Amino acid sequence: MKKQEWLELFASVNGRWPSPEELKAAMDQGVVTDAAEVTNGVADREEIRTKIEKIANQNVKEEPKEPIFHREMAMEKNQKQEVVSSESEQELSAAAQSQSVADSEKTIEKAGETASQPAASHRSSFGGVHEVHQAPSQLAVASQEVEQSDMTSPSSQGYTFSSQSESVSLSKKQARWPKVLGGLVAFLLLLLAGAGGYAWWRYDSGKIEGAWQLTQWSYYNQKDREWVDVLKRYKDRDYTYSDFVTIDENRNFQEDSYFYANDYKNYPYLSLGSYLDDVYQVNQWDKNIKIGQSSQSYERQVTKILKNDLKGYYNSVKTADVNDDIDGIVANYDYSRDYTVKGNRLTIITKDQNGKVISKAVYQRLSDSKARKLKKTFNNVKKKFEDNYNID
Fold this sequence. Notes:
The protein is α+β, with helices and mostly antiparallel strands. 51% of the residues lie in helices and 20% in strands. The protein has 13 helices and twelve strands. The radius of gyration is 47 Å and the shape is rod-shaped. The N and C termini lie far apart (122 Å).
């Protein structure tokens, strides 16, 4: 029998290419020759098949028990070397093409007895470790490919072997995919949980609803280029100064403040902020306080309050210039006000349009009863201020 025909027959019986030792054994027994004759008889082919099985079984006992995938890869390498040295363009035997379906099934059953079973692989899952069996034996796949493929040249044999290797590789990739997907899902869930926890913490850490009383305040005097302790200065000059802020559930920031000379308690002064209702908004995520309207709207509101609502004050106090006060107040629109909160302590940092810190104020959280008391006192002071300056 020609060597190429014997190689094809060996592959159809065993589902793999023969090793060099098996090929040499066949040649020593006279089964493989370089003669031109071709074996056509069915009886001769059965006798040769029996010898092939005997050679294969003897060789299997001597082979190390490696996984099918590794043996096939090694065989593919050896066979490619063998095919290069053989007649690469010789056509397959007509007898190999006309092999019956029944004969092929019988061949597959015989080959299945000598093939080792595929080992089970494992993957991790949320419920523990589960077995995931690989695809059906590559021997059956190879046998089906021998039946169905059009093997008309040595190059088509190479394609069949490549398909087997790709099938094994694809099977292993498919077995690994659930593990990779499970790990990816777990990572994404962990990432989302961490992001959600951080988002909750960041937002909740900026919560400042309630009432707060000023306890420390200093500002930078641009003219003298020094920091001034405002509360200390009021105290040194025998003045009383009170300031507290209230943040409602809608995060509206309202500041109410007043001062008076202790010798003239009945003539208090109120800050403009006490008349700016719902102007400042708290951004709980970014932890800052901003004016919730455009600069034009803010300027119109300030102008209305000073020229209309507080015109009685400016008519009484001749030293006060309403236009200068409007310009000075409107210039504060571009200031940024960031805050931090730690327990019952609220700190507000004010920066000018250049990003320079110009004010630091510290507030203490008030109880509900204390907040109501301060608000009542403020309303009484406000009434005195408006009565003194004929403010409606």
